[in-house]
Amino acid sequence: MGSIAAGKVVVVTGAGGGIGRDIAIAYARAGAKVVVNDIGVSLSGQGGTDGPAHAVVDEIIAAGGTAVPSTASVAGYESANQIVQTAIDHFGRIDIVVNNAGNLRDRLFHKMNEEEWRQVIDVHLHGSFFVSRAAAPYFREQESGAYVHMTSTSGLIGNFGQSNYSAAKLGIAALSKSIALDMARYNVRSNCIAPFAWSRMTSSIPAETPEEKARVEKLQKMETHKIAPMAVYLGSDAAAEVTGQIFGVRANEILLFSQPRPVRSVHMSDGWTPELIAQIAIPAMQGQFHKLERSPDVINWDPI
């Protein structure tokens, strides 16, 4: 067992498999006590069993670590509080929240229904807020704490058929920045990771055309355990000066993402009319327009 997170208590949501499981195990190896949270449903929301959370806890304990399971849902305010309460009840404190729980309901925007929209927003965006909010009083009182949220290039850049997921993931980036600003006075940090990895979530990506098959083949090279070191680092005291940032982890590659800032401005002393905007403002700014791109169009090199 390592020591970079020794003495810390961490809650990892969606930790029954994939990225979350690897993060939970990595924290335990780094010396942390772990609340392994997973509601135990399929990617599409079917079923529901405490098996995944308990299985990961058993694995951690067998390796000499310390962990307890939680099967409460992140998508409800009260149940999210139960997740954090599990840490308090068993370990007496909470130091780190890793908001990893997720689901997918992919559908083209003009075909997406209300349920598909709400289910993804509830788990990703509401869930990240609810669990983070539940930990906030403890972080504030002890004047320390760290949040690690999972965002996605589907929101940061764009993707087809994921308006619900993209909106939630970009919302999480904004939520993280707001937390970082609001809680800096209490020495609380908040950062995001955009993970690139083959997991339950990405396994639903279609692979029918030659292009789709080639993309999936590249994704399959990116293993979930590669995300864990950054998640552990961001929760540790070694990252004491790091907050409000968005990182990407792609196999052995770490990326730092830019955040929206003005790139061009135009001024008209007498004010603008719609006609003048069309004649002057837009032509002046058009060279800096962002192309209508998807994540694979922008991050289009092979993982290393």
TrEMBL record:
Q: Highest taxon of the source?
A: Bacteria
Q: Where is the Ketoreductase domain?
A: 8-213
Question: PROSITE patterns this protein is in?
Answer: ADH_SHORT
Question: Sorted alphabetically, which InterPro entries does this protein's record hold?
Answer: KR_dom, NAD(P)-bd_dom_sf, Peroxisomal_Beta-Oxidation, Sc_DH/Rdtase_CS, SDR_fam
Q: Please name the Gene3D superfamilies in this protein's record.
A: NAD(P)-binding Rossmann-like Domain (3.40.50.720)
Question: What protein family is recorded?
Answer: Belongs to the short-chain dehydrogenases/reductases (SDR) family.
In its UniProt entry, what is this protein called? Answer: Putative oxidoreductase, SDR family
Instruction: Name the source organism.
Output: Advenella mimigardefordensis (strain DSM 17166 / LMG 22922 / DPN7)
